[in-house]
Structures are given as structure tokens and as C-alpha cells.
């Protein structure tokens, strides 16, 4: 059991769109990711997904609207809802909370799909 | 699906040691609590518990040591581990993440046990 300092954790990696595992509880992972640019449209059949913005501004497109999530704000995307994360010109740091089974590209197999997540 | 702004959520209640539900996903609740003073020793038989400090400094006593968790830091307390949250003179704002079944006083029935948590 260790205190997790997010600033220190984010300083340990540079890859974008490659979530790192920072903690584990009750079958869920706490993940950290650096995002810049536009990700792919995807959904998760069985998992709700929480995004908390630690730095910058995250834009989440949905098929019927767009949400802007700022530093210190959180959004929970219910299972089955298609979404596309994207950013402006600045890198965005997010914390994710989701079941261990969740793939970051959802049901879509893509070159960006990371097979084995690493701990940070 | 709505963006959750923590500052705005914390402005909506004043009670201390009374977690409020701010979100729900995958059988887990995202909760917010204001803490000041000392809580009771307790543990959760079946639930790991995540604390993230949003404002102030949280002190967590364990039977064998004490951890200090500062703003932007996180600690995950594994199931079965006795802990006692406390603070200094300043009120502390924390975000909790734990299964919906979790009682904040753990296995201990106490006057501080809140029977029905409210949403904020």
C-alpha cells in the first residue's frame, strides 16, 4: 500500500494513447493516460468508463453531441455508448477508472490497441 | 451522462463524515466527503477503498504506521486492513471510490454510520 502521486506517475512515461496502470481495486484498474490529437470511435459492451481530467481539456464526441471536460472534472461513459476522445493542441492528462477487462479501443481492434498494459 | 465538476459538487453540502454519491459505474460508487477531526478505526471485510485528496491533507492511521495523503494524491486501502482517517485543523475534501455495498464505518456500527447515502 503506497501513496500514489499523480504528478510523479505522469512524469514516468511519455507515450500518448497508451494507458498505464496506477492501481487496482475490486476488479477495477486505475489508469493514467496522456492524450493528444484524436482517438478512434469506440464503445465498451460491458464496461462503464470514468474519465477524470488531471491536466488540460478533454473533448468527448458522442454520436448526438460533444462534451468538454476540464481540469478537475469527471465524466462517466455508460457501457455501449460510442465515444471518441480528442484534444486541442495541448497534451491532456487523464485518470481512468474501469474494470480490468476493459480494452481502451473497446470492441474495435486497431493498430492503437495495446495488448498488455504496463504498470507505472 | 453529465460532466461532474468537483468544486461545484462540494459546494452543495456542508456535513462532515457523510459521504455523498456523485457517480455510479460498474457496481461502484464515486463518493465525495468532507472530513475534519478524527474518524473511528474500521475496516471493510470485502471491499478495497480508494481515497483521492481533492483539498487539504488526509492522514490515515494504520495499526503499524501512518500515511499522509496530500492534494492530488491517492491511496488504495485493501480489504480487511484497519484504518482511521483523520485531519489537521483544516477541513479535507476527498473523493472515494468503492463498491456500492461499502459502509463508510466498515464492520463497525456507530452513531456516525449513515444508513442511506444521498446523491449530490
Alpha plus pi helix count of chain A: 1
SS elements, strand count of chain A: 10
The CA-CA distance between the termini of chain A, in Å, is: 15 Å
Radius of gyration from the alpha-carbon trace of chain A, in angstroms: 13 Å
Q: In terms of per-residue confidence, which ranges of chain A show pLDDT below 50 for 5 or more consecutive residues?
A: none
- The strand order across the widest sheet of chain A is 7-4-9-3-2-10
Structural class of chain A: mainly beta
CATH class of chain A: Mainly Beta
The largest β sheet of chain A comes out as: 6 strands, mixed
Order of helices and strands of chain A: EHEEEEEEEEE
Going by CATH, the homologous superfamily of chain A would be Jelly Rolls
Helix content of chain A: under 10%
Tell me the CATH architecture of chain A: Sandwich
Tell me, what's the shape of chain A? globular
The quaternary state of the protein chains shown equals homodimer
Mean pLDDT across residues of chain A? 93
| Pair with the biggest interface | A-B, 34 and 34 residues
Care to describe what's here?
- The structure is a homodimer of 120-residue chains.
- With 120 residues, chain A is mainly beta.
- Chain A has one helix at residues 6-10; strands at residues 4-5, 20-25, 28-35, 49-55, 58-62, 66-69, 73-77, 83-87, 92-99, 118-119.
- Chain A has one domain (6-119): Jelly Rolls (Sandwich), CATH 2.60.120.
- In chain A, strands 7-4-9-3-2-10 form a 6-stranded mixed beta sheet. In chain A, strands 6-5-8 form a 3-stranded antiparallel beta sheet, with no helix packed on it.
- Chain A is globular.
- At the A-B interface, β1, β2, β4, β6 and β7 of A face β1, β2, β4, β6 and β7 of B.
- β1 (4-5) of chain A pairs antiparallel with β7 of chain B, so a sheet runs across the interface.
